[in-house]
Design goal:
The protein is an all-alpha fold and 63 residues long. Helices cover 89% and strands 0% of the residues. Helix 1 packs antiparallel against helix 2. The longest helix has 29 residues. Keywords: Membrane, Transmembrane, Transmembrane helix.
């Protein structure tokens, strides 16, 4: 049963890493200008950093 929990934790960490990294990349690729563009970049940055933090927490939980 412990192996299943490790596999699920690894899967969650992998998905969080992929979504976090892609959110950060999309934040840099935003082409909007002005306040709306800055809001979009902040939102993508927040989700990206949150995803990377979840990935680090899952890695710590598996260690």
């Amino acid at each position: 049963m412990n192996d299943w929990l490790n596999a699920v934790g690894f899967g969650i960490g992998l998905v969080a890493f992929a979504l976090g990294l892609s959110s950060i990349i999309m934040g840099f690729m935003s082409g909007k200008k002005g306040g709306e563009g800055m809001q979009e970049k902040i939102e993508y940055g927040f989700f990206g950093v949150s995803g990377l933090i979840v990935c680090v927490l899952m890695g710590y939980a598996l260690a």
